[in-house]
Amino acid sequence: QVQLEESGGGLVQAGGSLRLSCAASGRTARNYAMGWFRQDPGKERDFVAAISKNGGSTGYADSVKGRFTISRDNAENTVYLQMNNLKPEDTAVYYCAARSAQYGSICYTKSKEYLNWGQGTQVTVSS
Which tens digit of pLDDT belongs to each residue from 98-125? Predict the structure, then answer.
């Protein structure tokens, strides 16, 4: 089992940037495909971005394409989400997720495909 801890959330004005980090412990992150999801109160958890185990493949929700970038540093057991040109509608709790992956180049975009979740970090974008 891998444990995940997010950091880097906060309050930012529209147009600003934040970088979220997800530190993995317990098992080495290189064995896992990783993803970021976000959730507003009372709503479903939505896919944001995903990265394959080897970092060679990435996927993004249409709403964040061109603004967000997911990356990973397997040596540091950390996955990042760089968020630029933030909008008020990006406000949510952001969750990091991990799942073991047999193949290195597949990324997963559905929350039900992930078994390991962090506690979340709040991102608030003011207009």
Answer: 999 887 889 999 999 999 999 999 999 9
CA distance 57 to 49: 11
- 51, 6, 91, 53 alpha-carbon torsion, rounded to 10°: 0
Question: What's the CA gap between 47 and 28, in Å, rounded?
Answer: 23
**Segment holding 48, helix H or strand E:** strand 46-51
Coil vs helix vs strand at 30: helix
> In whole angstroms, what is the distance from residue 104 CA to residue 85 CA?
30
**What are the tens digits of pLDDT across the range 2-29?**
999 999 999 999 999 999 999 998 767 7
3-state secondary structure of 88: helix
Distance of CA 81 to the CA centre of its chain: 6
Q: Is the distance from CB of 96 to CB of 2 less than 8 angstroms?
A: no
Distance between CA atoms of residues 60 and 49, nearest Å: 4
